[in-house]
Write a structure and sequence with these properties.
alpha+beta, Penicillin V Acylase, Chain A, eight-stranded antiparallel β-sheet, 15 strands
């Protein structure tokens, strides 16, 4: 996942709304969101190569989404980051998820990531680049990309040009998805989905070796209802369809 838009407690009708593009090799197999029964049950897409996921929500309304973090650090990546998302979704609270992230990054050297974990009442960002950093997210809209969040970017030397391009695009996206007067969360995710598919903003990518392979629009309502629309392909050409799954 390379572009994540999170509206945390920005709308009365839904305390959590997320629009996100996944950028990956088009040859990497995956399946769309489905319910994985367990305790707790989890609604998530699945990476069919490594077995983990890049985003999901469980029946306790704990949501997690991960973006790769570009860094100049040489990291072993001895465990899939998607398995860490699975570990987080097996918990039931921000505090429990925090304990898992701390213990797992102490035990394994993952490749770099930015991980947002949220419930309807709290949201936290974890950044790993060989050192774990944590930040509580304020109410409002946040934009996470491979080089940082909300205008605070760290451009890696080895990807300096593309990193600067992504930072500039993220600033434009952030301006474009600011909530409008009278807008609902469901209105916002539809508009955010349009931004993610609009090549003017640079979030929908088409390269030979990697590109935007899927996109998701998720709202968690004030009543606890979960609505997930999924585009199984680049959102510039692929319609978002409701996910048939309840938790």
């Amino acid at each position: 996942m390379c572009t994540i838009l999170v509206a945390f407690r920005a709308f009365d009708d839904a305390p959590l709304a997320v629009a996100a593009n996944r950028d990956e090799s088009p040859d990497r197999p995956s399946r769309g969101p489905a319910v994985d029964e367990g305790d707790p049950a989890v609604l998530a897409p699945r990476d069919e190569r490594a077995g983990g996921t890049w985003m999901g929500i469980n029946e306790r309304r704990l949501f997690a989404v991960l973006a790769n973090r570009w860094t100049d650090e040489e990291l072993a990546g001895d465990r899939s980051r998607g398995l860490l998302v699975d570990d987080v979704l097996a918990t039931g609270s921000i505090d429990a998820a925090t304990t898992v992230v701390r213990s797992e990054t102490a035990a394994h050297e993952y490749e770099g990531f930015s991980l947002v974990v949220a419930t309807p009442t709290a949201a936290r960002l974890f950044v790993w680049d060989g050192v774990l950093r944590e930040e509580t997210l304020d109410e409002g809209v946040h934009v996470v990309v491979n080089v940082g969040i909300d205008g605070e970017y760290e451009i890696p030397r080895e990807r300096a040009a593309v990193g600067r391009t992504q930072a500039t695009a993220a600033d434009s996206i952030r301006d474009a998805v600011e909530p409008r007067s009278g807008e609902t969360a469901r209105d916002w995710v539809r508009r955010a989905g349009d931004v993610l598919g609009d090549h003017e903003y640079g979030a929908c990518l088409h390269h030979e070796r990697y590109g935007t392979v899927s996109s998701s629009l998720v709202t968690v309502g004030a009543d606890g209802s979960v609505d997930w629309a999924y585009a199984d392909g680049p959102p510039c050409t692929t319609p978002f369809r409701p996910v048939d799954g309840q938790i």
